[in-house]
Amino acid sequence: MSKTVxxxxxxxxxVSYSAGEQILYPQPRELVRGAHHLxxxxxxxxxxxxxxxxxxxxxxxxxxxxxxxxxxFDLDRLNPAVRLLRPVxxxxxxxxxxxxxxxGRDFVVRTTIYSPDAADVITSAEVTRLTGAGWGWSxxxxxxxxxxxxxxxxxxxxxxxxxxxxxxxxxxxxxxLWQAWxxxxxxxxxxxxxxx
Amino acid sequence: xxxxxxxxxxxxxxxxxxxPSGPAARFWSTHLDNAIASNIQNLGELGDAVTWAPxxxxxxxxxxxxxxxxxxxxxxxxFLVLPWYYPQDSSEIEVGLIARVADETGDDSTVxxxxxxxxxxxxxxxxxxxxxxxxxEGATPQFQDFxxxxxxxxxxxxDAVGALVLGLVSSKSASAIxxxxxxxxxxxxxxxxxxxxxxxxxxTDPRPNSGGFDTQASFLTGGGVELDHISYPxxxxxxxxxxxxxxLMGILGPGVPVSNQIQRFGLSCLQLKGLDIWQRYExxxxxxxxxxxxxxxLLGEVVVTHALRLDAIYTRPRPLWVGPxxxxxxxxxxxxxxxxxxxFSRVYGDDGADQELLSASxxxxxxxxxxxxxxxxxxLHLWPVPGPxxxxxxxxxxxxxxxxxxxxxxxxDGDASWAAAAARGTSTTLRTHAHHAHDxxxxxxxxxAATRYPATGGAGGGPGEGYAYKEGQISPKLDYGRLELVAxxxxxxxxxxxxxxxxxxxxxxxxxxxxxxDWGDVPNTSIDGSSVQARDLDTLALVVVGxxxxxxxx
Lengths: 196, 554
Prior knowledge:
The complex is a heterodimer of chains A (about 200) and B (about 550).
Chain A (H helix, E strand, L loop, with lengths): L14 H4 L8 H14 L3 E7 L5 E3 L22 E2 L5 E3 L2 E13 L1 E9 L4 E10 L6 E10 H4 L12 E9 L4 E9 L13
Chain B lengths: L14 H4 L11 H17 L1 E5 L17 E2 L5 E10 L3 E14 L7 E9 L5 E5 L2 E2 L10 E8 L8 E11 L1 E5 L8 E2 L5 E2 L22 E5 L5 E9 L11 E6 L10 E20 L8 H4 L6 H15 L3 E6 L21 E4 L6 E8 L7 E12 L17 E12 L11 E13 L1 E2 L5 H10 L23 H4 L3 E9 L11 E9 L28 E13 L2
Parallel strand pairs in B: 20-23
Antiparallel strand pairs in B: 1-16, 2-16, 3-9, 4-8, 4-16, 5-6, 5-7, 5-9, 10-16, 11-12, 13-14, 13-16, 14-15, 17-26, 18-26, 19-25, 20-24, 20-26, 21-22, 21-25
Helix pairs in contact in B: 2-4
């Protein structure tokens, strides 16, 4: 048994459908795969950091939100709200995920997800880019259970509002960040719900 | 598989089910047809969600109120006026907020929140919810989450652009803050004049606080006059004896001479950390249930709807970004309170350089899409600076041409800065904007004038005292007519949608040199006490009140 999630959406051909003829392979394949493709890319989009002139900088060895650079854009100025909409299979368990991508160098960035109504930390994750890697993108994927993502902590309930915050510290010398972004990740075939 | 094929869940479909016995096989079964129909319904109804993440402060600390600008007004004001794309089948919008509702005077008062859908011209309200948001000062933490659902009267039958508006009305505190001010004169120029200098001198304590004029309003003791406060840069010496130079508290709208006393009351306010917008849909194209009931083979003309519905979902515009998100004051001009930010994006005329209007972070997931930038923009002619009655004799609105440039870039591994980022698309559009004459009855015009020309001396002209109280809020009654819907597009190329990495969009503008006739009847004169001349290009303001960016898959 296998499922396929194509990386490009291919519109299903309408010729056979509309001709009153039998529907033969491969028309249905494109239909099913097209739906998989669309589903794999659904979900919430969460703009985070965009440093336009000067990168966020810190030489701190522990997590901080204070910008030491001339941009003076402390990370505590970012307080996005997000609701996770699309469940995926993670190791066979229906869950929700958020991928956080960061561009910069020499950094450790921690993303914390809060329940704002109780100020509880639900979970956090770090993304690290070591000094030797130079400038570039790094990412981490955060997984939440259905209960953690549901209103009132109830699995299957309407999506709850979650708060996000970012902190950073240097990996070796000085962390520098230009951009950060979060969204529900592009789902692979193994993440398609089985409906079980 | 879900038992009801009701679109509640999306289920991956195995390849073996599609191709049971080779390429020539007839594949269709009622079971598979139901699963496909259900999946497409799920896709269609799941909707799209995007975060508006305005600049705030104190991330993660949901109890800290200081240094986060409050929205407050006794008359209705709007703090989010977004152009919004309503595709076919859109049926409701749900807004989620992380917010604090408070009254600095200690009352347990509420804020009336307005969530509305309007037509694109902002002349007709199409849907509205107006819940009272409970005071959260007694909650732990003080910032709580709120969800407001805005259902539409009918599901959208065809794509349309309209507006999504969030506004508020504050509650008045139970008792007055200030001693009454007797014999005052409410001056048309929005200065509340009297000999009590303390009446104008705002607090310098960390904001928001109970003494801050920005979360107060003035009321006539006899009733009938309710005046929201704005700030007002004044360069005059008071006729009443007090030193009135500097940044003053003012009132919005035409004042009237009064003989009764005036009192200041506290207003409830809303502080917003973050907000998300979830656009939802009703699947109106699902084949009727009865076509499945008999478990009979389906004709191609029925099944073809699957392909059509799927295509409609794929080509549906997707929201990528909501803004503007605000920006920080220039450290060299620290007239704004510590931590406070500017909410709207703005530029002033300058034919010598491209100017950054706003920047956005985007994640695009389809190959070579078109991006649609929708914005409500206000063109203003900020001349003269607010002054005494009779100083403004103009009647026409300058019509000035601007060049709008959209540029999309993407950082790639190894790039040390944006200068090295790869270009993904650019577009240039020339557009003529009406720059509305300065109007002291307009909240937008007054707050933009106070932002453009902050006081630099006198009482209220010191650091942290010169900010415009309601910058970032507009009045539906007074300001909607000044908003212009702008649509710009840029096509992306060379972008690998599978890199799963965000892009940056910059919107820059440049003023084209106006001809004499573009200025209308505005003579090129200066005003008393100012070197600003009427035809100075930098009296032309272009203000982005609300902006959304959409991905249009091709």
